[in-house]
Amino acid sequence: MFVTKQIESEHKDLIHDVSFDFYGKRMATCSSDQSVKVWDLGEDGEWKCTASWKTHSGSVFRVTWAHPEFGQVLATCSFDRQAAVWEESFGDVGREGVKSNWIKKSILVDSRTAVTDVKFAPKHLGLQLAICCSDGIVRIYECPDVMNISQWSLQHDIQTKFKCSCLSWNSSRMHPPMIAVGSDDNNPSGGGKCQVFEYNDSTRKWTKVETIVAVTDPVHDVAFAPNLGRSFHLLAIASKELKVISLTPLGRDSVIGNQAVVSRFEMKQVASFPDHDSPVWRVSWNVTGTILSSSGDDGCVRLWKANYLGRWKCISILKGDASQSRQDRNFSANPGQITPGAVSQQSTEELVRMNIKRNSGWPSFNTQKDQGKTYY
Hints:
Blueprint: E1 15-20, E2 26-31, E3 35-41, E4 47-54, E5 60-65, E6 73-78, E7 83-89, E8 101-108, E9 115-120, E10 128-133, E11 137-142, E12 153-159, E13 164-169, E14 178-183, E15 194-200, E16 205-211, E17 221-224, E18 233-238, E19 242-249, E20 255-256, E21 259-260, E22 265-273, E23 280-285, E24 291-296, E25 300-306, E26 312-319, E27 324-325, H1 340-354, H2 368-371
Antiparallel strand pairs: 1-2, 2-3, 3-4, 5-6, 6-7, 7-8, 9-10, 10-11, 11-12, 13-14, 14-15, 15-16, 17-18, 18-19, 19-22, 20-21, 23-24, 24-25, 25-26, 26-27
């Protein structure tokens, strides 16, 4: 059984992003009203707003949590060309009816255009933060002293040569660090709208290892699946359709057919679904990387899973009114095999995201409050 709840967010404008913390007990939302709100899940199962504050001087597009090992830390990015790092102060936290206080620890101002996404690196890479901008540059920052998150140093500038809209870290510990970057450029002649970069320890640089040419429509979200021992990587892409791409690392002397391999990966599209019949806005994996959820303009969250043959099927369709539809033509014959506990946290996150109203041009900056602004 799946349960959905409607939350009165009290945001005064369009909500752009929702992010859950590591444990799924806290939630952050950001909006075009330039504010961020933090919500805590009470013992009664109700979400309560414990903090609300103005973060930027433009629309806030993304909000994300750091791993709890580094404390209660948030990062935000905005149309005002800035990304910011926030830390919760612990003076009055935990008292009934008292709002928590979030302090701006650092502001990253290297971008000359809107910052469209921000993501913390996996915990084993340390306290690193990646941002992407509409000018086509991905910047990676590092905090050398985790006890003082006010100091961040720019480590890398990655030139993608396309307008960036989203990014995702690969969380695998067994492979070199990887980042996937998507573009929402509407120009179909611009080539593949998703690129994959890998960090080389010997050169200490990020290099582009793949361009996913199969994706030519604007990309709204990308997400690497958690890798718990796979020999390959799975990348979900939210675009005009939902696509799942597998990337299998190849050896230096690998040969496919009669030709030597130039690429670092054998890339294969393992699934492509037009079932939303509308743009797909968000994709998210469960903690084991076995179930994928997607949400689109059709007002539904769809859950996908591959069988032992690697064939992907829709195992459930969730609607905003908490009903569960079985009308999808790819619905699994045995949906009862999936226990609700395995997907409940992921489903809750996607259901909240699903209820976010979006204009058709997001993240095109067409709100009145942003159009006339010039940031220096």
